[in-house]
Hints:
It is built from six helices and three strands. The protein is mostly helical.
Amino acid sequence: MSSNKHSGLPRPTDAEMSLLRILWELGQGSVREVLEAVNREREEPLGYTSVLKLLQIMTEKGLVIRDESERAHVYRPAAPAERTRKALVSDLVDRVFDGSARALVVQALGSGRISRRELEEIGEFVDQLRRKP
């Protein structure tokens, strides 16, 4: 299992990230609730057992916490979205960009996938950072 040295959290797979995004939005959910939400986003629907197995693996990895007090087990994220994203970005900077946040930002901004509005928001954020002591 691959883990992130910045947070101690394991690095989620793409499939696990899709379930984490759903759980962050819901706050918590049963397998059925997660299944319904994930299948609203997919062309090829997943089956109940596939989602259950993924959630079981995610529980073993420490990505989600299972509440077994009810008949239908309820799952919730082990960490908030912001903490997980921060850890994943830190890991990406270290592994792919040799620790350079600048290289990551240059690559992201040069990808052509940024709108003018997003660029303005980033500029405002940079201005705020410059004003901090």
